[in-house]
Each structure stands twice: as structure tokens, then as C-alpha cells.
Amino acid sequence: MTEGIGDSSAAERNKRPIFEALLPWLHSAASVLEVGAGDATHARYAAHHLPATRWQTSEAPGHVRRLAAAIADDRSLSAQHLPTPLALDVRQRWPDDVYDAVFAANVAHIMDWNAVEALFAGAGTHLAAAGVFCLYGPFFDAAEGPPATGNERFDRALRAQDAAMGVRELAELDELAGHAGLTSTARIDMPANNRLVIWRRD
Length: 202
Fold this sequence. Notes:
alpha/beta, eight-stranded mixed beta sheet
């Protein structure tokens, strides 16, 4: 069953399976940018298990203080591996750095479509050659037939809350990826009707 809107416990429950699915794509990454890192649940878990990776978190400007506080509370992590979070509105200027991977979990369905477009454009611009964009969450895939009932209900609940939100169709995301110089590389089934989708920079 798809996680509820704003379910902050979902990241804690899912951090291990998400990391295990990410690991083949990130095991040699020197740098990762996480967009929409929330309370740093995924970042802190990854930083403990990928000590050679610099994991740069980011959040929307209105939420970055919460993210910074969560990271500061974990004194077992060094600033070298989990540096100060960035305030990032994906529709505005991105950091000047280039990353081996960009990762985002449960963001595409709560962004409006203009922000989703900006997310893909920014990822394409700031990935190193052969870098990967890893996007986790619920998606529709028309090529597979009718969507899961849980995702349909979740989509309706999202749109009732804000008409600009909603579960995204993978074919439309692939089109955005193509415009950003990214190629669809993997689609990994995950618990609760979610997927981890990977695009690679050409």
C-alpha cells in the first residue's frame, strides 16, 4: 500500500531497502546530491554505509533549518561526509558543483509539474559524465496496464489536497530525462507500490 501523504515514518521504515537498491549505483560515487532530504534519514544511513562518499543534502529554503538540525544532532557523522545542507529551490539556481549521482525520494508527486521539469533539468546539468539520477517513489506506467489500486487512491488524495500534485507517469518523466541528456537505465520494484528509477547521463 502506498505511504500516506506526509508520512514521516515512511523514510525510517524504508531506508534500508532503498539503500540496498541504490548501492549498486552509488558504491563508487565520490559525491551525491540529495534533493528534498527531509530530516536526513536516508542521508545519515547512507553516510554511515558509504564513508568514502560526500553526501550533500538539500531542502527547499523553508525547510532547510529542520534538515540542518537533524544532521547536527547526529554527532557520529563528520562534516566531510555529510556537509552543511543547501537551501535549494529546484526552479532557481543550483549549486555550481558536479556530482556523480543525484538522488531524490518521494518528491516528484508533491512538486508541481514546473518543479518536476526543473528537477530533471538540474540533474542533467549537474551530473558528471555517466552520472546517475535516482528517483524513488510511486509512479504510473501506462505500458504495464492499469495502475495499482493503492497508487490510484494516493493520486486522488494528492490531487484533492493540491491539484498541482500527483503520481507521475513514467513515460512523461522519460521524456523530461531525454531533454536533460539522461537515458532510462533501470526500474526497480520496491515495497508499497513504489519504484526506484535510474537515468544515466549520456
